[in-house]
């Protein structure tokens, strides 16, 4: 009996020692489910720290993780900024230039005859006689008086001949400004500069004038200005102020009359030529008034 008890006691002690040395739980408990093969369960990792991070992210079965987000640092568009600054500077310069030009133009603009230094005024009234014979005028070039029934074309016409004076006077009666120049003093680029002021501008004509006592002389009906240089700013002032100006004192008498005469453009009469008379384009003289005899009264302003 005693041997049997000892064996029992020895067996029990051996089992206790085995349990103490190997306290690992069985596979069924560690996986939280069945450990049978083919069940689809996977063993749970017991790596240190896995219990605090939770389950691993799902990868969609492809075995890849999402790539890290790229951080892009935006650089300043210095090229665009420089271009914008250049545009602003250019615009400011253009505006400044335009303002300066406008102010300069305003400074040179005149609003009355007495603002044009050296201008002379006369008193040729409406109703001057139409003649076919040469006229001896008191002014050189003439500014009014008897004239040919045909007018010289004055639609911004540039002549290279000394047009017949009696025809040019008729143009001024229609409101034109006649610019004459001394061909011995004004040539080349100087003529071109005067032509720029006339060419294509209705109510103006330009021609050489033999024997002129100044470099340039400007005429409108009852008004005259003589200057010594084509660069004189009064040339433009005179032309701008008196072309078709029917409101100025001593204004041209035939307001609204035409300046167009294609016949004269095609075949201009020159100083010393005879009149074309009835064959020419003519209009009737205006109603005679005081001063129709061509008398003049000169005033200097």
From TrEMBL:
Residue ranges with Basic residues bias: 1-10
Region Disordered: start-end pairs: 1-72, 270-301
Biased composition range(s): Low complexity: 49-59, 278-289
Transmembrane domains' residue ranges: 78-100
Family annotation (InterPro entries): DUF3105
UniProt keyword annotations, A-Z: Membrane, Transmembrane, Transmembrane helix
Matches recorded under Pfam families: DUF3105 (PF11303)
Biased composition (Basic and acidic residues): 12-27
Protein name as annotated: DUF3105 domain-containing protein
């Amino acid at each position: 009996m005693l041997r049997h008890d000892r064996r029992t006691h020895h067996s029990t002690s051996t089992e206790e020692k085995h349990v103490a040395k190997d306290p690992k739980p069985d596979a069924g408990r560690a996986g939280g489910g069945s450990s049978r093969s083919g069940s689809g369960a996977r063993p749970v990792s017991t790596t240190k720290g896995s219990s605090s991070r939770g389950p691993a992210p799902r990868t969609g079965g492809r075995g890849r993780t999402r790539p890290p987000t790229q951080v892009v640092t935006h650089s300043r568009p210095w090229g665009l900024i420089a271009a914008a600054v250049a545009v602003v500077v250019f615009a400011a310069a253009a505006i400044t230039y335009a303002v300066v030009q406008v102010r300069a133009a305003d400074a040179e603009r005149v609003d009355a005859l007495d603002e044009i230094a050296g201008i002379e005024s006369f008193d040729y009234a409406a109703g001057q006689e139409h003649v076919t014979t040469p006229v001896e005028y008191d002014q050189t070039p003439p500014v009014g008086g008897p004239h040919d029934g045909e007018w010289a074309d004055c639609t911004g016409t540039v002549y290279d001949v000394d047009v017949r004076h009696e025809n040019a006077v008729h143009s001024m009666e229609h409101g034109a400004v006649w610019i004459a120049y001394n061909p011995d003093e004004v040539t080349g680029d100087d003529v071109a500069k005067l032509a720029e002021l006339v060419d294509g501008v209705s109510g103006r004509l330009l021609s050489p004038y033999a024997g002129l006592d100044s470099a340039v002389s400007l005429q409108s009906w009852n008004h005259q200005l003589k200057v010594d240089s084509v660069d004189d700013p009064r040339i433009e002032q005179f032309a701008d102020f008196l072309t078709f100006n029917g409101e100025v004192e001593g204004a041209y008498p035939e307001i609204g009359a035409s300046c167009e005469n294609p016949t004269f453009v095609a075949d201009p009469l020159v100083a010393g030529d005879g009149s074309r008379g009835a064959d020419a384009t003519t209009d009737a003289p205006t109603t005679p008034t005081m001063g129709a005899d061509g008398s003049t009264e000169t005033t200097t302003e």
